[in-house]
Amino acid sequence: MSISNAMASGVAGLLANSTAVEKISYNIANADTVGYRRSFSQMVTAGSSPTSGAGATGVKTATSHTNTTDGSYQSTSLASNLAISGNGFFVVSSNLNSVGTQSMFTRVGSFEPDELGYLRNAAGNYLMGFAYDENGSLGSVDRSSGSSLVPVNIANKSIGGTATSAMSISGNVPSQETGLATPGDPFVSSAEYYTALGEAERLNFSWQPSATENQWELTISDGTTDYGSVTVDFNDSGALAGTPLAYSGVTSMATAPAGFSFDTATGQMTLTLDNGATPQVITVDLGAPGSFDGMTQFSGDYSPLNVPADGAESGQLVRVEFDESGDVWGVFDNGKRQALFSIPLATFANANGLLTTDNANFVMSRDSGSFYLSQAGTGEAGTIASGGLESSNVDIATELTSLIQRQRAYSSNAKIITTADDMLDETIRLKR
Fold first, then answer.
1. Is the same domain home to 294 and 173?
2. pLDDT tens readout for residues 60-105
3. Does residue 179 sit in the same domain as residue 290?
4. What sign does the CA torsion over 6, 8, 9, 15 have?
């Protein structure tokens, strides 16, 4: 190797080690940056030519990333702050007006709702996800592109009510109240049901003891209007004592389009409520004759009716919850819980090949390969933890050690240049 080549190698070494120091300083500066991925410079031999037989004349750097190494978890107690454990990246967009035009990927999970309810992280990027429909289904989504993604918004969410269609009644009426010459007052309980508009209404069930032992007169009303009545006789002995014996005396008091009917064989009544353009029909199950599943009559106290009913009233969102599979759940003031969004994790064949951009974001490159939007916790994708953040994966001790090594290497390469200069000076003196 000539003296000039030696000097060129020293210069290449200075440049390579200064680049390495640049990466180290960048890592140290971002040691506390949420979601930051460490990068570093690897030394690669430069200037060699196997075909010509020329030897290596220097060194250059190749930037590498540690995108697949997790940072530590830091709890924040803010539900919308998300951290990934394992492989994968959040998909984000920097502009709502250009959603889907170019996907960016990040591990910065410091998401909070903005003034419009969109979840944005500290870098100002919008979190993207798949939206569930009202039936809790994602439908057909394209997980190989961002075409099915929408910004995650948790503001002004409401859930429509569903009309009640079925009710079942259970409880106990006291046998000692029947068979009296002067029966006492009726025992009255009410049950809540929901209209097609999600409004809560109530039905009243009045149990009037009869002068005949083990016999009751049940009347159903809405508090102002009676719909109908039925006579209920209970068994007083044997294995079926306390269960309904028979239903009889069915009487409808409803005025059309309202209606009332009763199936004495099954113990089911059908109420038609005139509360809309299309009347609401509710099936009320008292329990079949000989069954302990519905109403019973035993000696003792009156047991207030237990009347489970389907349907629900309308509700407004009160909070959101995130599970480890990436689903965003809305909890509403009517007690319902409904899936709103699914937050996918983008996985790559070579995540370390992603290109770094501003704000700890990444974009695809030829080395990274294309992405696949996996559900968290499935396949190669990691899981999502709510209420915390993933810190930088930089280790300060490692960076400082590398800084010392690069400093020594830089000084050594500088020594090559000064030595080559001295040798050239000696060569020039040979002529004198």
1. yes
2. 888 778 888 888 899 998 999 999 999 999 999 988 876 555 679 9
3. yes
4. positive
